[in-house]
Specification:
By secondary structure, the chain is α/β, with parallel strands linked by helices. It is 43% helix and 11% strand. It folds into two domains: 146 residues, Rossmann fold; 75 residues.
């Protein structure tokens, strides 16, 4: 392929574990335990209820994040006060302040793609507090199309969530490069609609056990750093 000529019409990114850090398992479990204690819920029951409500929370069916917490607490047999919910939300905000930050190379590759007029999209599996955090971040203005599961009511690896992005980009799925960390079988899902899917797996993060729900065993193309995307897209 001639340098500077792209084989793709758009690049589609995952969010957690790709453009921003995924939460370390130890930090996530600590947040669940802290939240259960604040809401006066039995820890195991709260954790079980959190996981059991994942689909409703990720598709927006469970309402806002404060409603999410109340629903999970109720399932665990607790009825928190407004003050307790506020305290739990602050603990969650602290977790996000620590980890919801750009991964190395994220801002640089998004700026490069924008400068070279390559359309981009974001597809994220997330709860209702994520979109506002993203839109307040340094990366938000560098992505053309945003598809959040909690806003569109779709989940990975359903074909419709990928097609929601390509339709907004006005490109065919087969003309898209998809980059993700492999959670929620997202790479297989992207491939199933025709996208060229690539796993990002940074050796520098290998020692950290990350929260990576429904991770798949991927045997396709892999990159170690976001800076490699330029060569994949433009061949230079």
């Amino acid at each position: 392929m001639e340098a500077g000529v792209s084989r793709f019409a758009a690049v589609v990114f995952d969010l957690f574990g790709t453009l921003v850090y995924e939460f370390p398992r130890v930090d996530w479990d600590e947040w669940l335990e802290t939240t259960a204690a604040v809401l006066e819920a039995e820890p195991e029951a709260f954790a079980g209820a959190w996981h059991a409500t994942a689909i409703d929370r990720q598709t927006g069916a469970a309402g806002g994040i404060d409603e999410n917490l109340r629903t999970v607490a109720a399932r665990a047999g607790a009825w928190p006060t407004d003050a307790q919910v506020a305290e739990a939300l602050e603990a969650r905000a602290e977790l996000y302040r620590k980890w919801f930050v750009p991964r190395p190379g994220a801002e640089e590759i998004l700026r490069e793609l924008r400068e070279r007029r390559m359309p981009t999209a974001l597809i994220s599996m997330c709860t209702p507090d994520t979109p506002a955090l993203w839109r307040a971040s340094a990366l938000a203005g560098l992505i053309d199309v945003e598809v959040f599961s909690c806003e569109v009511g779709l989940r990975k690896p359903e074909p419709e969530i990928y097609l929601a992005a390509t339709e907004r980009l006005h490109v065919e799925p087969k003309a898209c490069l998809y980059v993700g960390d492999g959670a929620y079988a997202e790479l297989t899902g992207a491939s199933s609609v025709g996208m060229h899917a690539v796993l990002i797996s940074d050796p520098a993060e290998a020692e950290m056990e990350a929260l990576r729900p429904e991770a798949e065993e991927w045997t396709g193309p892999t990159i170690a750093h976001l800076s490699e995307i330029g060569a994949l897209v433009f061949g230079d």
